[in-house]
Each structure stands twice: as C-alpha cells, then as structure tokens.
Design brief:
Layout (H helix, E strand, L loop, with lengths): L8 H4 L19 E4 L10 H10 L4 E4 L4 H6 L7 E6 L4 H6 L1 H11 L8 E9 L10 H14 L5 E6 L4 E3 L7 E2 L1 H17 L3 E4 L2 H7 L6 H4 L8 E3 L2 E3 L2 H15 L7 E5 L13 H17 L12 E4 L32
Parallel strand pairs: 1-2, 1-12, 2-3, 3-4, 4-5, 5-8, 8-11, 11-12
Antiparallel strand pairs: 6-7, 9-10
C-alpha cells in the first residue's frame, strides 16, 4: 500500500452523499484472506502467526515478497493458499531476461512447491501506472509461460491501485488514464487469455478522509442499506461497490469483459488521523466488508458474482511511515490480541 497526495486524487474526486446490524463476532469465510506484512521489529514469529490464522479459519494469505522464514513456516499447511509477491526492485532485472525469471523462480518458489500451497504470484505492487510499470508485462509473460510449461496450478497477476482511473463517478463513467491504457490494458488482455484475475486495492477510507464533508461515513463503511448513488439502473449503497464497478466499467471500455477481480487489499486504520481513525470505525468497516464478501451478492454491476477479498493487514507495523500507515493492523504484534472484535 503506497499513498501520496497525487494518488489520493482519485479518491477526492468521488463526491457522494449516505444500517449496520452487528451481532458481535464475525466468522471468517473461505472468501476472506489476510495480508501478512513484515515491516515491524516486534512481530510474532511466523509459526505463531500461522497458528493464529488457523485459529480464526483463515485459508488465504498474501505476502509481499518470497520471505524464506514465512514460507518455511508454511510448510505442511497446504490448507492455506499463499499469494507471493515479486518485489518492485527486482522487476528491472527480471524484465530484461527470461533466464533471470527462471532463476528467480528456482530460488524463491521451487523449494516450496511440494509442501506450500502457492496459489498466486503477483508481479509488482501498485507500480502501474508509473516509471517501472512497463516492466510488469514481460515478467508476467515469462512467469506465465514457465508455470504453464510445467502444468503448475499457480496464477500470475499483478496488484494495482485505483489511481489507474481517470474518471470514476458515476461508476458507469469509469475510464483509465492514458498511462494506465498504455501499461495496464496489455496486462489485462494477457490475463483475459487465461481468465486470471487482476488484483486490485480498494480503500474507501481515503475517499472519506480526503473529503469528509462530502463523503458520508456510513456510506464509506457499508453502514447504510439505502441507495445513495443511482447510476442508471444500478443503485449503490456503499462506496466500495462504486469503486469496484468503476474499474469494471473502465475495463469494459477497453474491450476487457468479464475478467475476474480479486480485492488484494482493503481496510481502515484504527489510529493515526484523529476521529477519522478509531477502533470503532475500523471495526465497523472491516466487519461489514467481511459480511459483504460472505453474502456472495457481488456488486450492482456484477450481481450474484461473489467477491474474493483480502483485508489489510494482520498486524500494526511500526517500521512503516508514522501515522495511519502503522495502524491498519487487526492485531497488536506484541501480544497478538485483537485491536477490535472481528474474527
């Protein structure tokens, strides 16, 4: 997750006007995964983290690089599907050489194939559009060819943020920026060939925090059942669906139809920005997101098409930038106690 004032442009462009029934704990479903970040000096051991995941029935996790300690801890736990990231700083060398890609795979993935359930490899994290965005496609092509040649059940994709959208409101007006059309659309067309999902990061929090006078908190946190935005025949009662569908509309305008989307990150910080970031608000958003995913009802544009989603993140990470970035975690790293009720 990377943010700057420029990247908040998309969120501040959404100007919207917006019941929450909470019966206590929410049970994790197979549709919910967790991001496992490692930017902290007080994090529990990976084996303890894996035990935590099992205790709350998490069956999917995402790590941002092929960390050997984490992957070794996952050995034998094939009931946990793992998404492994290729580091952004490795893309240039990998894009330049298919042999380099084979070497990366042999070092970072091959040793774990027999006893770790590696389901996805993601090439870069939020680098499209941008200076190194053009490096994503050749690495994806090389990895796709490699896993296909070996009949490995590993999907190859990339993770993108919503600043790929030049326009997003109303959702049906969704369209990509010119640089996104240059760098992202070829990636989407490659994914379409194998019906492999594109992974997207969606954060209604940033829309709300950038313009709280125009973005109602209840709309941003799935906390209203009434229609807030009417977009032709489609009615929206939460901002998440609106953002998701804007991306779907943008893909369709580029001739990419019915491509699956996985929500690789979403969440709400519990501290770091005053009254906008409290444990109560963060808990409300994340519980309601889990309920939304578990319902299987999809979005207005893709109804009855369940969403696959990962919450960000497992722990507060004290080596990230100060402020909200350190406070997206569901658990305190020191004692592994939940910051608010969720699972």
């Amino acid at each position: 997750m990377l943010y700057s004032s420029k990247k908040l442009f998309f969120f501040s462009c959404i100007v919207l006007i917006v019941n929450y029934n909470n019966n206590g704990f929410v049970t994790a479903s197979n549709s919910i995964g967790l991001n496992y970040g490692l930017l902290g000096d007080n994090l529990p051991s990976p084996s303890n983290v894996i035990n935590l995941y099992k205790s709350i029935d998490i069956t999917k996790i995402r790590i941002f690089d092929p960390n050997t300690e984490v992957l070794n801890a996952l050995r034998g736990h094939r009931d946990i599907a793992v998404t492994v990231g290729v580091r952004d700083q490795d893309l240039a060398a990998l894009a330049a050489s298919e042999e380099a890609v084979k070497g990366w795979f042999a070092t970072n993935i091959e040793p774990y194939l027999s006893d770790v359930n590696i389901a996805f490899i993601t090439v870069g994290n939020e680098v499209i559009p941008g200076p190194i965005g053009s490096q994503v496609l050749p690495v994806m092509q090389s990895l796709t060819n490699l896993v296909k040649s070996r009949n490995l059940p590993i999907s190859i994709s990339t993770v993108v943020a919503m600043w790929n959208l030049e326009q997003s409101y109303p959702p049906s007006a969704g369209m990509f920026t010119s640089q996104a059309r240059e760098q992202l659309v070829p990636v989407l067309k490659l994914l379409s060939q194998t019906n492999t999902p594109i992974l997207v990061n969606i954060y209604p929090y940033f829309s709300y925090a950038s313009d709280p006078a125009s973005v109602p908190l209840d709309y941003a946190t799935f906390n209203t059942e009434g229609i807030v935005v009417q977009d032709g025949p489609l009615g929206y009662s939460n901002m998440f669906d609106s953002i998701f569908d804007a991306f779907v509309w943008a893909m369709e305008k580029e001739g990419v139809k019915d491509l699956p989307m996985v929500v690789s990150e979403t969440g709400w910080p519990s501290a770091g920005n005053g009254n906008f970031t409290t444990p109560d608000i963060a808990g409300t958003y994340n519980r309601n997101f889990v309920k939304h995913i578990a319902s299987g009802k999809g979005t207005p544009k893709r109804p009855n098409n369940g969403i696959d989603g990962f919450l960000f993140a497992t722990f507060n990470e004290n080596q990230k930038p100060a402020g909200t970035e350190q406070n997206f975690g569901l658990y305190n790293p020191n004692d592994m106690k939940p910051i608010y009720k969720l699972f």
